[in-house]
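Pair request: fold both.
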Amino acid sequence: MGSRSPVVQSATAQAQASVFDEAVIRLAIQASVAQFYYAIRSLDAQEQILNGTVASYKEQVRLVNVQLKNGLVGPLDLYQAQALLEATQAQARDVQRARADQEHALAILCGQPAALFNVSPNPLTQASAPMVPAGLPGQLLARRPDVAEAEQNIIAANAQIGVATADFYPTFTLTGSAGFESADLQHLLDWKSRMATIGPSVSIPIFEGGRLKANLEATKALYSQVVAAYVSQVLSAYGDVEDALTDLHGLTDEAERLQQAVNASQEYLRVATAQYRNGLVNYLVVIDAERTLLSNQLSLARRSTSNRGEHSPDQSTRRRLGK
C-alpha cells in the first residue's frame, strides 16, 4: 500500500468504508428482523398460555354452575368465575392483536405485502440462554462493520493529508514533446507547433501558498475529527458488549427466578383448589392463585424474548435507517 499515491489510498479507503457502511445498515436490518421475529414467538407463547388458561376457566365456570344448581355454592362464586373468564379472553384477544401488528411490521421490513405475509405460530421454548466464553479478545470488536468503517475513514483522512501536502510541490507535465513547440497534449497534433524543443512544462504554486496552507490545516483538522469519531465508535462498541453481557446475565437470572415463581404458583393453585373443594377457603383464594400463576407464566414468556432478541441498533445506525 505504501507504493500507491495518497489519492489512490484515500479513494480505496473511502470505497472500503462505503462497503462497511452498507454492512452496518444490513446488520441493523437483520437485528430488527430478529427483534420482530422473537417478539412474534413470545406472543405465540403468551397466546398458548392464555388459550390453555381460558379452557381451564371455562371448565371451572361449568363446574361452579353445577355446584350452584346443587346448592353447594352461592351465585357470587359463579359471577367471579365468569368475570375471570371474560377478562382472560379479552387478554388473549389483545395478544392476538399485538401479534398481528408485529407480523405486519415484519412484513414491511422484509418488503412484503402485510396482507399476504404470514408467520406460522411457533411458541418459544424455555431453553437456556447461550453461554459466552470467558476471555474473548477485544480484537473481535474490529469485526463490527461500524468500527471497521470508522477505521477506513481514518485511513482515507490520513491519505488526504498527503494529497494536501503534495499540492505544495511543483507540477511537472511530461508529454514526450520533443520536436513540438507546446509541452501540452492540447496542441500536440498542431503542425504549426513543430520545432526542435525538448523538456517538460513546470507549474510552481508560488502565489497559492496561503490557500494551500489553509487547505492543509483543514485536512489535518478533518483527520483529528475522524480519529475522534473512531475512538467514540470503539467506546460505543465496548459499551454495547458490556450492556449485552450485563443484560444476558441479568435476564438469565430473572428468567430462572420467574420459573421458580411459576412452580410456586402452580403449587399455590393446587393447594387453594383442594382447600376450596373441602370448604376451607372461599373462591376468592382460588381466583387469586389463578391470577398469580397466569401473571408469572406471561412474565416468563416475555423474558424469553429478551434473552434471545438482539440489541437495538445504536443512534448512528438508526439515523442511517431513518428511524
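--- second member of the pair ---
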Amino acid sequence: MRITLVGTVPPYKGGISEFNTRLIKELQKEHEVQIISWKQHYPSVVMKEQTDKNIPPLEGAQFVLSYKNPFTWNKAANLAKAFKPDVIIIPWLTPLATPTYAPLLKLMKTKTNAKLIALCHNVLPHKKTVMDKPFSKIFFSLIDEAIVHCEQDKEVLMKLNSKIKIKKGFHPLYDKYILDKKPAVLNNLKGNVMLFFGFIRPYKGVFYLLDALYEVLKQLDVHLLLVGEAWDGVEHDIIHIIKESGMEKHVTFVMDYVPNEEVAAYFDRADVVVLPYTSGTQSGIIQTAYYFDKPVICTNVGGFSEVVKDGKTGYVVAPRNEKALAEAIIKFYKGNKKKEFSSNVKKEKVKYGWDTYVEILLSK
C-alpha cells in the first residue's frame, strides 16, 4: 500500500511529532510512505511553534506546507498526486487549523483517489473556543474515516458527524527511549520519587498535585520530579507555591523540554507517574510510563481509566480533588504497591503494540 502522512515530524518536538515519527517507522515495514510536513504550522495566536534547531529533520520528509500560503497547499496536493497514495493520513489536533486543512483536503480529494483518514488525538481541544464545533464539522465532512483513541472521543465524533466511519484504537507505547544520558538533577535523589512529565499547561492539573503533595508530606517523605516545558505562564505560580509552602526540598522542577536521550532517566528513577489532569482524552505519558513498567496514578478523565486499571496498574481518582489524589499516593507507598503494580503493567502493556494499531488504522 502507498500511504501519505501529512503532519509534524522532527525538527518539530513534542508528543505528536514523536507519535507521527514512530507511526511512520511502523508503516514503512510493509508499506511505501510519503511524508509531507510543515514549514509553518500554526499562527502564534493558535499555538506556538515547537521546533528545535538541535533536532535533525526526519529523513525523507518534505517540509512544504505553510498555513498562510495557499500555493504551498496546492504544492502538497501535487506531491501527493505524483505519489498516487491509496491512503492519506491526517493527524487532527485543533479545529482552529480548519481554514488551512479544509482547502488542503479538498485539493487532495480532487487530485488523488486516496482514502482520507483522520488520526484523532483529541476530537475537540482542551482549550475551548466558540469555533470548535463548526470548524470540526467542516473538517470531518471532508474525511472518509477517523481513528480515535478512547470511547469518549468516539462519542464526541459521532455527534459531530454521524456518517463518518470511526475506528476505535488506542495510544500505542512510546517505545523508542533508551537509558542514554542521566541529567545531573537526578544524581542526589534518594528515597520515594514520583514523576509528573510532559508539557505543563493549566488543564494538566499540576496545582492540584502540589496541594496533594503538601498533604502527603505530613505522612510520608516523598520527592516530586516535575518535568516539562511550562506554557501559558504557569511556571511563576508553580515556583511561588513551592516556595510559599516550604516544599523546595521535596520538588525538583525541570522547567524545560527534555531531549529524547534524557527521557528514560527520569522514568527509570521514578516509582510512579502521576497525571492529575482536569480534562483530557488520552495521554502518551501513560504509554511512556508503561513502556518503562511504571504504574500510574491519574484522574478519571477521557480514556485514562480505559488504560490505567484502578488497583491493578495504578490508581484512578476524581479530577480536581487534591484530597483523593493525596490518598492514592499515600496508599501506593504505604501499601508497597510498586512491585505488584509494575508486574501488572508488564502484562497489561502487551495490548498496546504499534503493529496492532496499524492493523486497526488500515483495516477496511
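Observation on the second member. The domain at 184-350 is CATH 3.40.50.2000 (Rossmann fold).
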